[in-house]
Fold this protein.
Amino acid sequence: MIREFFKPAPEQIETSPTVSDEVKTTTCYMCACRCGIKVHMLDGQIRYIEGNPDHPVNKGVLCAKGSAGIMNHYSPAKLTKPLKRIGERGKAEFQEIEWDEALGIATGWLDAVRRSDPRKLAFFTGRDQSQALTGWWASQFGTPNYAAHGGFCSVNMAAAGLYTIGGSFWEFGEPDWDRTRYFMMFGVAEDHDSNPIKAGLTKVKRSGAKFVSVNPIRTGYSAVADEWIGIRPGTDGMLVLALVHELLRAGKVDLDYIVRYTNLPWLVIRDEGAAGDGLFARGADGEPLCWDGATGQAADARLAGVSPALKGEFSLADGSRAVPAFQIMAQRYLDEAYSPEAAARETGIAASTIRRLAAELAEAAFEREIVLEQRWTDWAGRTHDTMIGRPVSMHAMRGISAHSNGFHTCRAIHMLQVLLGSIDCPGGFLYKPPFPKAAPPGLRPVGRPGEINPATPMAGPPLGFPQGPEDLLIEADGAPRRIDKAFSWDAPIAAHGMMHMVIRNAWAHDPYPIDVLFMYMANMAWNSSMNTAGTLKMLTDRDEATGEYRIPKIIYSDAFFSEMVAYADLVLPDTTYLERWDCISLLDRPICSPEGPADSIRQPVVAPDRDVRPFQDALIDIGARLGLPGLVKEDGSPRYPGGYADYIVNHERAPGIGMLAGWRGETGDSHGTGGANPDQLQRYIDNGCFWQGEIPPDQRYFRHANRGYLEYAVSMGFVGHADQIVLQIYSEPLQRFRLAAQGHGDVQPPDAARNRIETYFDPLPIWYAPFEGAALEEAEYPLHALTQRPMAMYHSWHSQNAWLRQIHGSNPIYVNRGTAAALDIEDGDWVWLTSHHGRIKGRAKLMEGVNGATVWTWNAIGKRAGAWNLAPDAPEAKTSVLLNHTISDLLPEKGDGMRWSNSDPVTGQAAWYDLRVRLEKAAGDEAQESGPQFDAIRPLDALPARPAILRYGLRFSRAWRRTHVDGGRT
Amino acid sequence: MTDLPTRTGRKLGLVIDLDICVGCHACAVNCKEWNTGGHSAPLPDTDPFGAHAAGVWFNRVHSFEVGDGAESRTVHFPRSCLHCENAACVEVCPTGASYKRAEDGIVLVNEDICIGCKLCSWACPYGAREYDEDAGVMKKCTLCIDRIYNENIPEAQRVPACVSTCPANARHFGDLGDPESDVSRMVEERGGYDLIPELRYAPVNKYLPPRPRRGPGGDGPRTLAAAQTPGRAAEAETEEPDGFLGWIDRLLSR
């Protein structure tokens, strides 16, 4: 009775509230994946960000990071105004200045450099998505000292792929998720390409295909794998070569594919000690030769009609002896050095498991062959009625690339794919246009002697793909020409530069001093550097004689109060990603899918509420002030007064080729090539801020040898000609470097580098133990230490994000349960991790799913106290760790008088994951906080106070709207 | 103290596929983003940039390991209100603020009459209730009641935010009271199960277990000799390391 009396009236539910009064599409930038988003605005505030269902990258879904975009946009760590340093570097004592003064200071510094020696500007950007602009700007300025972050991220993958198959993982290719029957994933950071991979894994699992994850650590993706292979770090190459050994031994390779699409039938000269040894035998016009079994003569290996021998030794017309590359390859990998037993010793994976994996690969490739009833025409004009698929696909990323053997390991993976016939076939690994390109692409780096002159643009871009020693950027005496020593004998194929060496070299004045270090969104004073504490000293070190900083001037642009801001002399505050124009260009790292080329833009969704400018606008402005030829008109006035949006639309890299491929030409009817279209950005906005071209079904596979596709690629400006792109398993460019090291040719390495070049420039994939471990006593540093990238946090970007830091606000040191027990370490204990370089203290967290010889933690959660406008006692500073403190930028001394960079010897890729450590329990009386601790950075006066409570969305609540907004619009 | 409906017209709920959930937290954050401006707005965060950040989340993902050694597995487990048919959280509510809708079975809190006594959170065995210290009221998953019927949203997207955003497509929404619905069929085919069924709260949400894994010991080939390739096998069987060239004698053509 009484319950009836108190029964409340039913709640009135508003089931159709207004979501937004305006929806704008744009491109996410909460990580590097570039998903399409729809931003809902309500009463001038961001109400909701969701994935754009029409977008080719994410097809409507959005990850944790993207969904937390609101919190980045309203973060209290946003910079608010240009800053000029007034105190000591590193103390974060700044004076706020106006933009005109800031740009004037930058222009003054840069003008002096440009008119004397443009190389004294080192311009390096971080996870920059405007490299089509920034690289071009560097060329216009005339400095070769430019790169983005690829050198410390994934250049091993990009270079190995481009030199081998003319494409690579992630941006340049992906598995045929719909058709693959067997998917192998090696060492993938879970924030990379994240939404497409998650969607792809779902397709793989739903279809009943097998998913094998090779990774020392079993987190997100590996946790749902059919089989997790908890490999010892840095040994993946040995596993892959043992799989090759097994497949060759049993003859389970696709010989038809090999003969048709690879250079393995090409003849290699055998003339030990001669200048031509190991190069391809070539005819009168430079054409590679094969031995035609039908005629019993050497023939142009590129001809369609030949029947090339894969074995044998042949005498050529000039008397030289030659053998097919296939024979060299097969003999090498059939050797017992690559047996499953040999691989088991290095990898920790049982030989029986390796044999089984090889059998599974062969079964998927050859017994589950896919036959598509799809006519297509090959490069030679022959029509085929079907497309044959070998449905094995692979993906690899950071766990392969971040080792000093990463280039060769990645090449080994591509070789395995090619031997199975699974590159760009149904169910295999698919290129994303504008790839494939020639292996390697024809672009050479610019900056050789004579190519750099005061007040003069360079003739081409600073980064490229050396084909031999003559393409290196070195002085006559072999000394590096670039400040990071990329494209020198230290790292000849440093195709993405070596950002991780810039600060050390600039500080050491090696190979020369610079005057201005100009960086954009790269947190080099913390998580983006090896040897972080040493880097801080280099940034603040003064020349004893002059009292000046050894790196005289530092300009830095960032949207947030990162650790690096404190070390700048001039700070150019950037906008958030929702306040700017941007373009994701085919000239940079594109968003294409195997189904077709695509590019996209960002448009300003909200206007900045503070005195900040998009970095690209500032860069274009500085360029015009400097009078850089491409940035001013003939009368000296700015060529792009409308800033980056103006540049995106009107700049042409070559006639008809601009930043965006869609809606070109006066009327917007051209795609790929065409003149500028003043209405282009609106056309993008009307289409959801992206453009996508479509490739017809007969051009969807075998695109390295598909005439229709290759002609389309020429028409789009992707490649220069429609010749077949032959997959380069045997790499002649590598052999050219090796020959130089053996004393051949005019361009010779210094003696100290000779042995290194000869060893690591093997024309076929090799495996060797990662350098750091090989230089240390195993007993002293028995464990490997790695970082993993959480799916809900991108590097250092999101510790100021109120939501994401609740998910990853503190990172423990994860240890295998058995390993911990042997060291008497229990869950939650404070432990020290000690490397040859440094040590960190954190809390141990025990787990099963990690290789017993490996410890790990999440990447970049540890922060310096005071940075990012976090409270000084935030867990990011007090209980979190930063593995970088244990990673040296140099290898241990070897006694050869050299200090080698901690990098891959071929590409210069930073070898983060080579790290070796020992683990010890901290003493009971040690402070219960992470170490090392640094002085807190003084917070900027201009940053807003941190709220005690955040009530985001209160203004959208029913109660608020009833009383404040519009009398209850529903 | 508050009555449950004797039966509900529909049983709206979620089906979560643990076979493909990679634990990415997209559901949790997108839920937070939608709902902090939605029916229960706001979902506050206290000390958001300090030492003890804590917020209201309707959906949380737990990653943990089960088993030891080679038998161990990592599980990613998203947790939110299960909209139980016998919702204890409703029955203990002294004011009627917690209630289950008769028309669709969604369990909601009427904040206007919630006194913040937290009895419901004590009653819920799934830990699905979220107390808003700032407002002094209990909040919880609404199954995005302001999305699923929202005529301002395109029909295809009238699903909870967590479902719409899930990159792995591991979350599904529908009427679990209708045996013909997609979600019911999915539960049937995959052996979807209730969380802690012995408590008899009859949760509407279901979890789909991991599919059988094709790991070692499955029905796949063990060795290459066993992996016969039609048309190739005879050429391929070469046990002698030096005999590898034997099988490439046939004339291959480009």
